[in-house]
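Quality-control log, excerpt.
Job 1 of 2 completed; input and output follow.
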Amino acid sequence: MKNNIQQFCFPATAAEAARLMARFKDKGLIVAGGTRLTRTLSPKVEAVIDITDLPLKRISADARGLRIGALCTIAELEASPLLKRWARGVIAKSAGFGSNALARAMGTVGGNVVRAHPFNNLPPVFLALDAAAVCLDGAREKVLPFADLLKPEVMHLFGRKLFLTEVRVPASTKNLACAAERLSTTKTDWESYVNVVVAVDKRAGVCRRAALAMGAILPRVARLGRAEAALEGKPCSEETARLAEREAVAELSELTGGAEGKAYAREVAGVLVRRCLLEAFNG
């Protein structure tokens, strides 16, 4: 593949990487796993900033919650004993949705999160768990709610003005009843019809609060606020799960403009919402 790369940079710290990114702007490219580099390399790129060896690979927990380094591979999330215990293992399960073992072994959390592809598997689970993104802008650290990271005007800044170092998941999510499902033509197909993650705070058989995050069917990952509101205060029952299914399909119909080409995906999304809720309700 023809390119205009003139130099490779190997920063020793995240701060140095952020400064290089700010210096080169659109002429620089940050590379970690590099799973999509050959398909997305712009001819404008003159410098490659290789961050592979930066110390951003830990998965840990403290009193405030989970801390997941941006350079952790998808496979490391899938295999992590800590993540398999957190929120019923929903992060590890979502990581396992990745298309194939090689891609999961190479791809990183940062690459999966900051590329605005609706089929990526980690954004829905982080959005459902009210995660935050820790970034450097070349001068200082910023902490963004994950929902803000997904905004197009913010997503555009990653790799240009913002450098992701860590994803934080609040401690309050540790014991949530969670579930995730994904449907694609084949198990290893990167493009899916829909990716659903639910997180439920249930007490004494009642749903106090719920998060429903949806990927693939929409241009970018989103929460279904109307369906979430319909669940609050309802008993954790099959009837409630079917109510949420109907609300989710209706909300997605509005969000997709009733597009005929999305009809099957909307129907599937509703079914997966119901299945995930029943799994969350029943444990």
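Job 2 of 2 completed; input and output follow.
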Amino acid sequence: MFYKRLLTLVLIANILNAIGLPARADNCGIFETTAAERSEAKSFNRRPIVGKPKIGLALGGGGARGAAEVGVLKVLQKAGIEFDCVAGTSVGAVVGGFYCLGISPEVVEREFTGGALMRNYMAEPLVFRILGAPFLAILAKFSRNKYDGLYGGDRFRNYLVGRHATDEILIEDIKKPFAAIALNVIDGKPYMIRKGDIGYALQASCAVPALQKPVEIDGMLFSDGGVVCNLPVKQCRELGADFVVAVNIDESFAPVPLKALTKPGSMARRFLSWELYDIDQAQEALADITIHPETTGVSLISKRKCWPN
């Protein structure tokens, strides 16, 4: 089924590429957006393509499962498919941001397979951070980022950008239109970050509540966009995409045996899986093609297994 979808995508994309594609969108800023609702998905009518169509890529969040998104990009690039705009949430913003910067999937793949990405996301083992939380709370009073979270996030941001650039990279200067989706915890609404330092935008989109400190940008306080807008198909269309390819890296939500829910932490994982499945449904309905790699068994914060078989 996965390869059948890819073949369909290749055929459609080749037709669209033959028509010709625009270079970039003009709107740059930080824009409030909304997650797609079921009623919106049911009434959605694809607009007719007039003139030059634009192909968009929507990359969902999913922590270490983002390695699967890199695998999808490798296959699509080998097929000659290029995207005109990209919207990404959480790790999808990282993969999408690198893509828009022109960094090859092979280079990004090494960041996942070697475990470097997750090691920099959580600089020390989680258990040490939890045990040292009282001491860290005291140090937070003297920190630049005084907000709540076990990890500051600066190391992760510097790692993301420092590995591939020495100067500040502004999103508005990137040739391919790109948006990192993040939740503003001040007003509880999702936003598309379309301007400013891409390192801070990626850090903000990946700031899992309580795990990483939120990021303050332009008087707003941003946290992981996956809380409300995990698969940003609607946001990709807001970038101007006429045809959207979505990559959903959440675990498939399917019935499980009763004994699977007796293990410690199994109920929390099950409810998280359902929550992501629930908020992704309406967004996925707005996509023209959805690619859903097999990510079962890959933990969101895995440092060992982050390349699905």
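Post-run check on job 2. The chain is about 40% helix and 15% strand.
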